[in-house]
């Protein structure tokens, strides 16, 4: 599992949820090849949707850029092994 390898780079997510995100990422790395970023991201998204409700987005890779709006308290960006993980819930518009 994690064994202290994950490093949070930015987040406004509660710590308990961050730990869960890193656990799901570690689990995904056990299930899929490290080059299969799409399957890794899909696994994490599915787990977050099931646990915290639908609307979660997940980006996994070693080199990507993005610009997004998220709901307060639902964003985490961390590194685990050689990959970066961006998980957030999209902001709803009024």
From TrEMBL:
It comes from the Eukaryota. One of its GO terms (cellular component) is cytoplasmic dynein complex. InterPro entries: DLC_sf (IPR037177), Dynein_light_chain_typ-1/2 (IPR001372). Keywords: Cytoplasm, Cytoskeleton, Dynein, Microtubule, Motor protein. GO terms for molecular function: dynein intermediate chain binding. SUPFAM superfamilies: DLC (SSF54648). The keyword Transit peptide does not apply. Its main location: cytoplasm. It is found in: Cytoplasm, Cytoskeleton. Belongs to the dynein light chain family. This is Dynein light chain. It comes from Microthlaspi erraticum.
